[in-house]
Design goal:
12 helices, about 20% strand, 2 domains, alpha+beta, Aminopeptidase, binds ligand BES, globular, 18 strands, binds manganese (II) ion, Alpha-Beta Plaits
């Protein structure tokens, strides 16, 4: 693949023009009124795969947003790599914090700025260009299938049924995904773990209507005060989650495994500086990398109620609500955690209020072994383009479909991400470095090559 780097350099401008077309489609999966954009993005991907040389590409219906399926089958006796990615993005709000509009991509200082620049349009697109290169130069060594979904950012609710219904179609030897990060631009890593998620919404109701806080204040429980007190009870002074049974299924890593983890470079000062905080925090007895990589966490994502407009209004609100998510580790089941949370949250509510607890979505964590042919192929691919062996790292993020793939299709995934944790994904000014984009396109074909060679 001596011509690969040259191919990327010579075609980079076109690659970016193409990617920018996709980014300009605001395919925000969580918004009801974006349905047409979901189809537009799916159609765009289908056309792109066909143009690049797929034998077949189609937009397939699900109970929710469509999936794009594509394939290039060279010979059924060869191995098959299934590429997964997602074309949906997170909402771009608050718009006023963006330096350039989120759906009008712009390159500044060697980085693409836009919603989806990294997560996952930019990363997914590297696979399309690697595919184009391998086909054009006759170097595709095995079969390829693509499954690109549009519901990842809302927890992939329709994908379990989709995978069950199309098991045969999705059959492959390995799944390859670029939707995670690597340690730093010169420290390649392979993500070997993801956390699961249980996302809850709670509502606390007190009096039947808002009350005058002078006439009633001090004599009636205020649901906002109560909600804050209940939330405070979810963790103790050591940042340990207090929900009974919560840690029952949490896998405790051995001393050796933790020592192995600690060998991955982590710069705490840079971590704090990057997000402008003076002090990190988390569960007592664990390092920062362990707190996100191997331990569960609980966070309030939003809280509301009462009067929030400018100026003062003296009321005691009738209702208060919050969105609370728990990141889970492998073996913790999101459905079980949902029940534990519900039972505990209801049990700590004072008699003066009613509580409603709803499960919004969830998914299971994932661990990937490093002693497989696929991992070795990925490792060798990174070593070829970066000159050093990548480090296995457990990430704190979630991609719910990865554990579904294992459960329904019986397939392990290789998480070969080229993003950086500092790329501001889900935030204003999300960005992706052109260097990472190029390196990704350069590394992917080597995975195909080594994976196919190692199968023989
Ligand atoms: N690509 C991310 C997950 C990710 C990012 C993993 C960086 C590791 C490193 C994905 O699109 C994502 O945001 N997932 C959601 C899942 C949720 C909405 C069910 C998450 O982690 O919040
Ligand atoms: Mn993603
Ligand atoms: Mn995301």
């Amino acid at each position: 693949m001596h011509d690969l780097k040259k191919y990327i350099e010579e075609n980079q401008d076109r690659f970016l023009e193409e990617l920018f077309e996709l980014i300009r489609i605001p395919s925000v999966s969580s918004k009801e009124d974006h349905k047409e954009h979901m189809y537009a993005a799916a159609e765009w991907i289908k056309e792109k795969l066909l143009k690049e040389g797929a034998d077949l590409a189609e937009v397939m219906e699900t109970e929710g947003h469509p999936v794009v399926y594509g394939e290039k089958i060279l010979d059924t006796s060869l191995p098959t790599v299934l590429i997964y990615g997602h074309y949906d993005v997170q909402p771009a709000e608050p718009f006023d914090l963006w330096k350039s509009p989120p759906f009008e991509p712009e390159v500044r200082d060697g980085r693409i700025y836009a919603r989806g620049a990294n997560d996952d349009k930019g990363q997914m697109f590297m696979h399309f260009k690697a595919f184009e290169y391998m086909l054009k130069t006759n170097q595709l060594p095995c079969n390829v299938k693509f499954m690109i979904e549009g519901e990842e950012e809302i927890g992939s609710p329709s994908l379990e049924n989709f995978c069950k219904a199309h098991k045969e179609k999705l059959s492959a030897d390995v799944i390859l995904v670029s939707d995670t990060s690597m340690l730093s631009p010169d420290t390649p890593s392979i993500t070997t773990g993801l956390r699961g998620l249980a996302y809850m919404e709670v509502e606390v109701t007190g009096p039947s209507h808002d009350l005058h806080s002078g006439l009633y204040g001090g004599a009636v429980d205020n649901p906002l005060n109560v909600l804050c007190e209940m939330i405070a009870k979810l963790r103790d002074e050591n940042n340990h989650i207090t929900i009974p049974g919560f840690y029952d299924d949490v896998e405790e890593l051995s001393k050796e495994e933790r020592e192995e983890m600690a060998r991955a470079p982590f710069d705490l000062e840079a971590f704090k500086k990057g997000i402008n905080i003076k002090k990190e925090a988390g569960e007592k007895g664990y390092s920062t990398a362990e707190r996100t990589g191997i331990r569960p966490s609980l966070d309030v994502n939003g809280i509301w109620g009462g009067y929030t407009e400018p100026g003062a209004k003296t009321i005691l609100p009738s209702k208060a609500s919050a969105k609370i998510s728990m990141r889970l580790v492998p073996h913790q089941e999101s459905k079980k955690v949902e029940q534990l949370f519900k039972d505990y949250f209801e049990s700590i509510a004072p008699e003066s209020v009613k509580v409603k607890v709803e499960f919004l979505h969830g998914g299971e964590g994932y661990v990937s072994p490093t002693d497989t042919v696929a991992y070795q192929a990925a490792s060798k691919a990174f070593e070829t383009t970066y000159g050093i062996k990548p480090i296995p790292v457990r990430s704190g993020g979630s991609i719910p479909i990865i554990s579904l793939f294992e459960k329904v299709l019986g397939l392990k995934s290789i998480l070969m991400g080229f993003g950086l944790d500092s790329d501001a994904i889900h935030s204003p000014n999300e960005n992706y470095s052109l260097e990472q984009f190029r390196k990704g396109i350069e590394t992917i074909p080597y995975f195909y090559k080594y994976f196919t060679e190692m199968q023989k």
